[in-house]
């Protein structure tokens, strides 16, 4: 029973992190039609910026996270506006561009910071123990921030003009433009929000786990899996699927071990595809 | 003249869709483009809003040459657009669909538009929170129309608003167009179903094979327009 | 954009532009990007230092001419394809002496290719088939766990008595091989051992740790997990309330584990294997020498130090052989005494385990941290086979 | 209308590859052999990507089927079955057979969803390889695969390995050329507008399935070529990340013609080897190259050359 509760706690905290990443990934895909291979790169960058702020500039950690969010968002903005925007309708070209960016980013970070993991610790330490069950305090804080961010994102998307504009562009770009929505303004903004989410996740999670060049690769794989499960372009689906992935990963790893556990997740995704080819909450998919 | 089209050519790859048409839309009037499928009606509308590029010719709206103005800026100049096949934003609620037509106008004007449209189309109240993709064709047409009107446009473009609709919806939408006209909105609409559309229009153009065959006040084109309808 | 192109061109130039009259090139090949970048870059530092030392003394005499030694590095990306391509690319530049590759994954692919090309290479692979008699040009800089695991475990048990251990490793070749070797060594010492494999690319180990702790082991051994992973494992083990000793009867990287896990207070009780006695001031002096000769810091650490003796001996063998021919250099190498000015005296080993005596066995270290205090790395002398 | 079996682009591609047979007469450089070997393997893999792109499907499944082809050869080698013709057939047919049920699953998907799902397929293959040590050697892979035999003669030298890889690449190009030429209009219709094609009476799934199965077979040939070059079948050779390389080859080369994958592979493999000697900067330089080509040379190498040619002649 202790194991069961422990797995559930781990699953939920994994799910919240995955949700932040997958929401950004889905946002970029849904609105721009771009598969962002650099998503893991922005996660990494978020971690390194926050680390640099703490280690070199002596900023307090919360401020460092804020700087990381702004920096990753700004880079996303610039990348979309100056490179991606030129060929935003060519899905293969945008895929290659994000891939190229990822390679450049990871090489850049490796060159600047070296190959070793950084000494980057979360300022709040320790765990709360309830009998055999424990909950690390840092995980609670990160969970709270993740959930708050998801709620804030939801408010922006569903309760503001900006969100309506973004969703309209996601639904039908040509018609949205004909209604006067400005992609030149909204696309970079959407990309920046998404990369800032990845940066935020990186700044929050890397001090809990580890920060080294290469921590971005698994991020991409997890985002893919989550988005497939949730249904492409569906933000609710991505959020829901993120928690499913987190919980399944936790339970299967606890009960079947690491490598079989990963297989369980994949098999689950395949099974879902047999019965529901559009994912949990997906709709008909636009062509690439 | 609110909208003036002079010698407009549109080409898709090797195919010429419009070969040098000229159309005038006077302020306050409802102008109808009729013709069979492939006559070039939608190409004309799409060229005005900027969804297809013009190969040659000029489109002047309220004194501004639209030729080199991108699509999204044209809408902001005061052109409302209700596209062929409705194309509402399927995942967004009815209210959000309508509000997206008034993007960036500020909260006050958006609410004003919403109140006005809701009083004109009670459907918008009944189905306010339903995703537009789940509505019937006629209901979607109302939403598309309301979305196009939400920015209080000077010119409203309507591409085949009756397409595939039951008579009860045609009636509702016709009433709405008449209301608009009463408010002084200029309308340019296309329609294959000439009969109900002719009741609404003040003047019209009959198109065939990418060219204008005849133009003038409604009465002068009625016979040709109806001949096409049964073609 | 033009600036970018110029920059690319500028980086590409040195490889071709300075074809001096006599320059002998040696290779440094390993992962220099991605998760394993530390290894490849450390190896490169070792090759650079060995070359710089030779150059300082005027270079090597090859076929009657005195040549400067230059290091050409190749990023194998920690893949077999990359490593095989690297072995070929280096051979294409007439390079027959390679410092690297590092891991089993690369080594498996390099073996046949290097044999075909006549290249001598140095690995640090832990795989049970890392060395094979049919590949006589392959050498090893340090022995695999089978040679020292027993010694490390015996020493650890003196400080940390234990009855059971859980070994946590990735499900790759090195992981599975080391888990079985370590497991056998623990069992030989009367410790019940279980292995727990995690998927490569795992970032959060909390589920694995829940599973491990359900079996209530006395100790947990992170064996050959990447140092970054091991650091997270330590951190999360302690968060979960595990108070037993944590070991690392596997690869180097304790400094990195210490950084990632959050320091001595977290690490608490820890024992590990070091390929060289890292606390020895003579070993640490290697870094100063590197700085003196090359003017900047090495990508340092145990991998750097443990690759250096192999690189130095290769230079010496090259000098004696007077030729770049891998077979001749290898022949000299095999007869050379195992000795290094910084590390000390060692032996050739490997015959019993691999069937070929081409593995360097130098003095190594066993480190102990007890109650959050670093007791230091104890020097262990190498034993002749 | 008479249908040509092959177009001029296919013939040029075959000629370019055939030049590989003559390289050993000019040079014995290991580097040249190595690069060419990688190019031939890469061309085969990139062609399987290209076939799917004909139907507007971007596939990351190439390594999955490469693994099946490669491991087929490696396992057969353990039983000393090394006949070139037999193994070529086997490394084509087995992946193609596996592709039938997989295709039924994934071909229902389109666009980016297809991209992501095929990416996941290649990750599943990795886990399958790890979890079946008795068959595939698990994480150790299968080392020491014997060289192929052609008419009973062992093809073990560098030169013979190169010639065999060249032959496989030409075979793959021939199959790709025949397939895409034969179904040219069908593929074009699907690429242009699948829904429209379907409404016009084209049985879309049949052509998609055909393309997917043949592309899988060709990937299998690439796996054969790779294993024969490395003499090792190892899970990390078939990592999902390698799919990215094959896609890059195709897109950088240009997706408009079969010359795209051929030239793109040549250029990028050469660049990889050039950058490889710059150690830690290799990946970044590769990334810069991709960015530059995509931004500056739209349509890839072939598309850009064609555009320049048209500009000159018009």
Describe what is shown at a glance:
Chain B is an alpha/beta fold and 231 residues long. Chain B has 9 helices and 10 strands. Chains in contact: A-B, A-C, A-D, C-D.
What can you see in these coordinates?
The complex is a heterotetramer of chains A (288), B (231), C (385) and D (314). With 288 residues, chain A is an all-alpha fold. Helices cover 73% and strands 3% of the residues of chain A. Chain A has one domain (2-275): ABC transporter involved in vitamin B12 uptake, BtuC, CATH 1.10.3470. Chain A has helices spanning 2-32, 39-55, 61-82, 91-113, 137-159, 161-171, 173-178, 183-205, 216-230, 235-256, 258-275, and strands at residues 127-130, 133-136. The longest helix of chain A is centred in the first third of the chain and has 31 residues, at 2-32. Chain A is globular. Chain B contains nine helices and ten strands. In chain B, the strands form two sheets. Chain B has a six-stranded mixed β-sheet, with helices on both faces. Chain B has a four-stranded antiparallel β-sheet with strand order 2-1-4-5, covered by helices on one side. In chain B, strand 9 and strand 10 (211-217) form a beta hairpin. Chain B is globular, with a radius of gyration of 17 Å. The model of chain B has no long low-confidence stretch (mean pLDDT 89). Chain C is of the alpha/beta class. Chain C is built from 14 helices and 17 strands. Chain C has a seven-stranded mixed β-sheet. The model of chain C is unreliable at 1-20 (pLDDT under 50). Chain D has 314 residues and is an all-alpha fold. Chain D has one domain (8-239). Chain D has helices spanning 8-18, 23-26, 30-54, 62-78, 84-106, 111-131, 133-136, 158-182, 184-192, 194-199, 204-230, 240-253, 259-276, 282-296, 300-313; strands at residues 142-143, 149-150, 153-154, 232-233. In chain D, a hairpin with a 2-residue loop joins strand 2 and strand 3. Chain D is globular and about 50 Å long. The chains are: A mainly alpha (288), B alpha/beta (231), C alpha/beta (385), D mainly alpha (314). Chains in contact: A-B, A-C, A-D, C-D. At the C-D interface, helix 1, helix 2, strand 3, helix 3 and helix 4 of C face helix 3, helix 11, helix 13 and helix 14 of D.
Major protein interface: A-D, 50 and 46 residues
Q: What name is given to the CATH topology of the largest domain in chain C?
A: Rossmann fold
Give the low-pLDDT segments of chain D. Answer: none
Name of the top-level CATH class of the largest domain in chain C: Alpha Beta
The average pLDDT of chain C is 89
Coarse morphology of chain C:
globular
Write out key terms for the chains shown.
B: 231 residues, alpha/beta, six-stranded mixed β-sheet, four-stranded antiparallel β-sheet, C: 385 residues, Rossmann fold, disordered N terminus
């Amino acid at each position: 029973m202790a194991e069961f509760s422990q797995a559930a706690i781990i699953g939920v905290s994994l799910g919240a992190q995955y949700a932040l990443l997958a929401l950004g990934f889905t946002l970029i895909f849904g609105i721009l039609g771009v598969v962002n291979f650099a998503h893991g790169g922005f996660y990494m960058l978020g971690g390194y910026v926050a680390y640099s702020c703490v280690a070199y500039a002596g900023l307090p950690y919360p401020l460092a996270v804020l700087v990381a969010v702004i920096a990753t968002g700004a880079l996303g903005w610039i990348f979309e506006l100056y490179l991606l925007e030129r060929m935003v309708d060519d899905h293969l070209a945008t895929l290659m561009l994000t891939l190229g960016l990822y390679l450049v980013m990871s090489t850049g970070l490796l060159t600047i910071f070296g190959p070793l993991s950084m000494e980057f610790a979360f300022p709040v330490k320790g765990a709360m123990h309830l009998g055999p069950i424990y909950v690390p305090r840092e995980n609670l804080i990160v969970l709270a921030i993740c959930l708050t961010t998801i709620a804030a994102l939801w408010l922006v998307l569903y309760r503001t003009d900006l969100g309506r504009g973004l969703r309209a562009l996601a639904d039908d770009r040509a018609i949205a433009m004909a209604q006067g929505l400005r992609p030149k303004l909204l696309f970079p903004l959407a990309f920046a929000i998404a990369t800032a989410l990845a940066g935020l996740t990186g700044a929050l999670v890397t001090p809990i786990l580890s920060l080294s060049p290469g921590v971005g690769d698994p991020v991409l794989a997890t985002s893919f899996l989550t988005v497939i499960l949730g249904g492409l372009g569906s933000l609710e689906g991505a959020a829901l699927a993120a928690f499913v992935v987190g919980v399944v990963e936790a339970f299967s790893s606890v009960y079947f071990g690491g490598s079989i556990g990963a297989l369980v997740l994949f098999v689950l995704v395949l099974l879902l595809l047999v019965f529901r080819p559009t994912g949990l909450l997906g709709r008909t998919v636009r062509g690439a | 003249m609110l909208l003036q089209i002079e010698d407009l050519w549109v080409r898709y790859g090797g195919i010429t869709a419009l070969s040098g048409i000229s159309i005038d839309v006077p302020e306050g009037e409802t102008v109808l483009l009729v013709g069979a499928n492939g006559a070039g009606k939608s190409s004309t509308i799409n060229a005005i809003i900027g969804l297809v590029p013009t190969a040659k010719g000029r489109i002047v709206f309220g004194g501004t040459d639209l030729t080199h103005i991108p699509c999204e800026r044209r809408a902001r100049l005061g052109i409302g657009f209700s596209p062929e096949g409705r194309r509402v934003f399927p995942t967004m609620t009815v209210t959000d669909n309508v509000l997206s037509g008034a993007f960036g106008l500020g909260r006050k004007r958006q609410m004003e538009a919403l109140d006005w449209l809701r009083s004109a189309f009670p459907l918008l109240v009944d189905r306010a929170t339903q995703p537009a993709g789940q509505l019937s064709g006629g209901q979607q047409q109302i939403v598309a129309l309301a979305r196009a009107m939400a920015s209080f446009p000077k010119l409203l473009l309507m591409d085949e608003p009756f397409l595939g609709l039951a008579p009860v919806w045609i009636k509702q939408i016709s009433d709405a167009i008449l209301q608009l006209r009463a408010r002084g909105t200029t309308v340019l609409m296309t329609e294959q179903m000439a009969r109900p559309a002719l009741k609404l229009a003040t003047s019209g153009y009959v198109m065939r094979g990418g060219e204008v065959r005849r133009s003038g006040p409604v009465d002068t084109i009625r016979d040709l327009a109806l001949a096409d309808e049964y073609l | 954009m033009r600036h970018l192109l110029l920059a690319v061109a500028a980086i590409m130039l040195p490889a071709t532009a300075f074809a001096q009259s006599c320059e002998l090139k040696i290779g440094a090949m390993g992962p220099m990007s991605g998760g394993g970048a530390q290894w490849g870059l450390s190896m490169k530092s070792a090759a650079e230092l060995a070359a710089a030392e030779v150059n300082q003394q005027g270079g090597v005499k090859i076929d009657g001419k005195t040549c400067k030694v230059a290091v050409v590095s190749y990023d194998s990306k920690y893949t077999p394809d990359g490593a095989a391509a690297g072995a070929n690319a280096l051979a294409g530049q007439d390079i027959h002496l390679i410092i690297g590759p590092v891991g089993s994954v690369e080594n498996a692919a390099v073996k046949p290719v290097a044999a075909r090309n006549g290249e001598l290479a140095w690995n640090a692979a832990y795989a049970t088939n890392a060395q094979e008699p049919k590949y006589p040009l392959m050498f090893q800089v340090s022995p695999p766990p089978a040679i020292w695991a027993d010694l490390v475990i015996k020493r650890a048990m003196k400080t940390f008595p234990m009855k059971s251990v859980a070994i946590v490793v990735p499900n790759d070749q090195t992981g599975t091989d080391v888990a079985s070797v370590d497991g056998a060594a623990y069992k030989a010492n009367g410790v019940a051992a279980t292995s727990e494999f995690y998927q490569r690319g795992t970032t959060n180990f909390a589920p694995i740790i829940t599973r491990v702790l359900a079996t209530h082991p006395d100790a947990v051994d992170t064996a050959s997990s990447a140092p970054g992973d091991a650091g997270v494992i330590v951190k999360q083990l302690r968060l979960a309330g595990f108070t037993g000793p944590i070991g690392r009867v596997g690869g180097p990287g304790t400094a990195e584990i210490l950084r990632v896990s959050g320091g001595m207070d977290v690490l608490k009780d820890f024992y590990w294997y070091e390929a060289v006695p890292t606390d020895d001031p003579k070993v640490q002096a290697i870094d100063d020498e590197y700085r003196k000769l090359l003017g900047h810091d090495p990508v340092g650490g145990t991998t750097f130090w443990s690759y250096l003796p192999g690189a130095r001996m290769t230079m010496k063998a090259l000098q004696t052989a007077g030729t770049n021919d891998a077979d001749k250099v290898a022949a000299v190498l095999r007869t050379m005494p195992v000795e290094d000015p910084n590390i000390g005296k060692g032996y050739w080993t490997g015959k019993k385990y691999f069937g070929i005596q081409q593995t360097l066995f130098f003095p190594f270290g066993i480190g102990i941290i007890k109650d959050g205090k670093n007791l230091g790395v104890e020097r262990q002398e190498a034993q002749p086979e | 209308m008479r249908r040509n079996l092959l177009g001029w682009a296919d013939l040029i591609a075959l000629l370019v590859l055939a030049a590989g047979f003559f390289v050993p007469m000019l040079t014995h450089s290991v580097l040249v052999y190595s690069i060419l070997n990688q190019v031939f393997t890469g061309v085969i893999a990139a062609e399987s990507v290209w076939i799917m792109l004909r139907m507007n499907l971007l596939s990351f499944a190439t390594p999955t089927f490469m693994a099946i082809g490669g491991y087929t050869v490696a396992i057969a080698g353990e039983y000393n079955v090394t006949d070139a013709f037999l193994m070529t057939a086997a490394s084509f047919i087995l992946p193609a057979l596996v592709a039938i049920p997989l295709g039924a699953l994934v071909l229902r998907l389109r666009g980016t969803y297809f991209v992501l799902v095929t990416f996941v397929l290649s990750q599943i293959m990795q886990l399958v390889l790890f979890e079946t040590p008795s068959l595939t050697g698990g994480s150790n892979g299968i080392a020491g695969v014997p060289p192929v035999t052609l008419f009973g003669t062992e093809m073990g030298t560098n030169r013979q390995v190169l010639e065999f890889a060249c032959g496989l690449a030409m075979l793959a190009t021939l199959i790709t050329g025949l397939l895409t030429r034969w179904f040219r209009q069908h593929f074009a219709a699907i690429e242009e507008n699948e829904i429209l094609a379907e409404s016009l009476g084209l049985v879309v799934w049949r052509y998609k399935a055909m393309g997917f199965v043949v592309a899988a077979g060709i990937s299998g040939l690439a796996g054969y070529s790779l294993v024969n070059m490395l003499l090792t079948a190892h899970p990390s050779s078939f990592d999902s990340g390698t799919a990215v390389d094959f896609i890059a080859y195709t897109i950088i080369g240009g997706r408009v013609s079969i010359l795209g994958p051929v030239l793109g592979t040549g250029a990028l493999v050469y660049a990889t080897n050039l950058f490889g000697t710059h150690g830690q900067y290799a990946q970044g330089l590769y990334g810069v190259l991709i960015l530059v080509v995509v931004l500056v040379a739209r349509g890839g190498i072939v598309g850009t050359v064609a555009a320049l040619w048209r500009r000159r002649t018009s």
